[in-house]
Specification:
150 residues; alpha+beta; 5-stranded antiparallel beta sheet; 2 helices; 29% strand; rod-shaped
């Protein structure tokens, strides 16, 4: 009779079905956690990209101000997005656009003068953008000119 109990395979299919169900449940939980993680990554990337574009807007404001080198004041752009001149530390006290120096470039002509090397002013614009807690800083060096120094 004991050998008959060991050879009885009733219930074996139930155990296999439960094991397969357990494996499928673990795969499903893994897929859900991976999807949640990827969604968070995509959201952070979107916010970081928005902060970058807000800081680019600050650079454009600085470019439009040249040759005026006053600070780019903290300006609200969207629901929770701001830009200002300087680094992230300068949020409450924006820094002015920096005059870096003069540079001569051949082949440019100041209006009303003979063709000679043109003098350009060099500026460095630092702008920081913040969007929903993410900050991005952009630094740009530009030449402004040709200008007449006479």
């Amino acid at each position: 009779m004991e050998s008959n109990i060991l050879r009885n395979e009733k219930g074996f299919a139930l155990i296999i079905a439960l094991l397969i169900l357990l494996v499928l449940t673990l795969i499903g939980i893994s897929a859900i956690s991976t999807t949640t993680f990827e969604t968070k990554i995509a959201g952070n990337e979107r916010i970081g990209t928005e902060a970058f574009y807000v800081s680019e807007g600050g650079v454009q404001v600085g470019l439009n101000k040249l040759p005026d080198d006053t600070p780019i004041i903290r300006t609200k752009v969207g629901e929770d997005s701001y830009y200002w001149g300087g680094t992230p530390k300068d949020k409450e006290n924006p820094k002015p656009i920096q005059f870096v120096g003069n540079v001569w470039m051949p082949g440019f002509q100041v209006p009303g003068s003979e063709p000679t090397p043109g003098e350009f002013f060099r500026y460095q614009i630092n702008a920081t953008g913040e969007s929903f807690g993410a900050t991005k800083e952009v630094e740009v060096q530009v030449r402004y000119g040709p200008v007449s120094t006479q």
